[in-house]
Hints:
By secondary structure, the chain is of the alpha+beta class. The protein has 2 domains: 18-114; 125-157, no CATH class. It has 5 helices and 3 strands; from the N terminus they run H-H-H-H-H-E-E-E. A 3-stranded antiparallel β-sheet has the order 1-3-2, with no helix packed on it. Strand 2 and strand 3 (148-157) form a beta hairpin. Helix 1 (21-38) crosses helix 2 and helix 3 crosses helix 4 (84-97). It is extended, with a radius of gyration of 23 Å. The termini are far apart. 6% of the residues are buried.
Amino acid sequence: xxxxxxxxxxxxxxxxxxxxxxxxxxxxxxxxxxxxxxxxxxxxxxxxxxxxxxxxxxxxxxxxxxxxxxxxxxxxxxxxxxxxxxxxxxxxxxxxxxxxxxxxxxxxxxxxxxxxxxxxxxxxxxxxxxxxxxxxxxxxxxxxxxxxxxxxxxxxxxxxxxx
Length: 163
């Protein structure tokens, strides 16, 4: 009679978030070039020339640190040597241009292609739930079917869970 051999419990390798910074910055710079080729990127007016090359790359890394690591704008400005007003101005300008939305859409399409599907979903799953809200909340409706005072939240995802 043999004994059962159980494989050792192993966890996947830890995720190194800082290894992904270069990938993120390269993707953002490529997206900025695509926006510039489309002609939707307004030129910055002012006495100083816009950031280019290594300085633009450093600014992209600083914005990543603020958004991913939770650093403060003023602190990252001191650490990277770029004034925080410049960093925040870049982030705000790129947000107005829709850079982050374009990047997210491209990630969704690339993720679906990596799974072997078409870039755009052909069907979605829609679900909703009722969330209670405080009496002092501005938007306070009522879900008649469940008789819950609060707001109703809807979400639509494809089969991989991408919104």
